[in-house]
Amino acid sequence: MEHDDNEFLVPPRVTRRPGRPGTESLAKEETRDTILDSAEQLFSQLGYTTTSFRDIAVDANVNPGLISYYFGSKRALYEAVYKRRGKNLTDRWSEMLDALEERSDQPPTVAEILRVYLSAQFEMKQKGPGGVAFFRLQTRLHSEPQKEAFMLRRDVYDSVGRRFVSLLERALPGVETADISWRFIFIIGVGLYMTSDVDRLNDLSSGRFDSNHLDEALERMMTFCTVGMMAPSTELKVRKAPRKQKTAKAAALPNLGSRARVK
Amino acid sequence: MEHDDNEFLVPPRVTRRPGRPGTESLAKEETRDTILDSAEQLFSQLGYTTTSFRDIAVDANVNPGLISYYFGSKRALYEAVYKRRGKNLTDRWSEMLDALEERSDQPPTVAEILRVYLSAQFEMKQKGPGGVAFFRLQTRLHSEPQKEAFMLRRDVYDSVGRRFVSLLERALPGVETADISWRFIFIIGVGLYMTSDVDRLNDLSSGRFDSNHLDEALERMMTFCTVGMMAPSTELKVRKAPRKQKTAKAAALPNLGSRARVK
Q1: CB-CB: which of B49, B217, B252 is closest to A95?
Q2: Is the ipTM reported for this complex over the cut 0.90?
């Protein structure tokens, strides 16, 4: 079996036999899940390149040939790992947004929409080692800006992501739509950093605070992100004035406190 | 020369000859910089594990032995790459914060402090391929939560990071210090995501907006981050009420709109 590291979205070359699901296919489903669990842990710990079929086979206690049989290439296995838990997350978001929208008395508020976005991520993270591994895997994907990684991310997240933006636009008719989209991207950045276990709260607060308490993290993120999302539209000024000769000190402080004044 | 991938902070085993700086040491300085430039590009593109001394030697057009001579181990070279540009950034922050603090008429405002933090990063990013490579390298470091990576990050950023937190605390006497530290961490997350060229603005706005304009990005980040930083303290309630039996729909909406209400 060839492991093609360069092709990303290769469909698994699995020969399927027709038939009803029975004991045999249940056992298959379990084996498939066991392989996915091992791959998720190893990809997140060692990275994509370093992890081999052999490593996964040893961890999952199966024959390496079986992994090829179920998933085809290493890329396809990686994709299956990412999509499995990515789909759990997007399904949960959709379910929570449906419930908000089905409520007849009032449309969803900014705080409600953002609470859905942030709380579902912490929910998944709290579910155990699989959730933790997934977020680490996801952060790794974001540090590898390659076309194939972007395609996978779009495939999993675009539809529900656009729904969040659209709901926020309806909840904030007075804010420029460009700001709403940009701010949602900023909030994605906050969410990624705070689910990846690499934040610097302990260091920068000289040990006064730490971010291990997910309930507290969620509430503090809610304040920051909701208030930021509801801020007045950003005032953008075209910079046309010719640059004057500056003193050394003035040069050290370009544009300080000029635009986007919010006080 | 052994390349020890496990030891991180090994000092370079360079034998230095005493003497005044002259043409020879200037040439050495240039060679050193050329090696650092090549290593920065390759580490950021291929990752730490995949990049070899040989790759760097070919790219820098020097003998691989010379890299060992100047830097010792691969880890030490990586560290030198990270610290070189990390120091540029922290020096620029310090210079801009000094100028703010030396101003006698009024203490720095939240917007001024955050503009220093965010604008210096975009300044470095705009300086060319080296700046871009550094931010990608830095994002990669954050996706590899290993003890040694954290030590390097602390070494470079802790001192100036604490200065930012301390200045923000002075500028916001009415906000709980815990919130100020947490919010600064959220802003680090925003900055990392927006300097790493992996954001999803184009996707999620269905192509209406894109984040290639750093001036615009800075102004929109300034609004979001400044308003978020200045938000009222987060109200944390201890969750002591026993959980009631929930209907399916209610269960889909835990805690919606309850805490940290900001409207």
Answers
A1: B252
A2: no
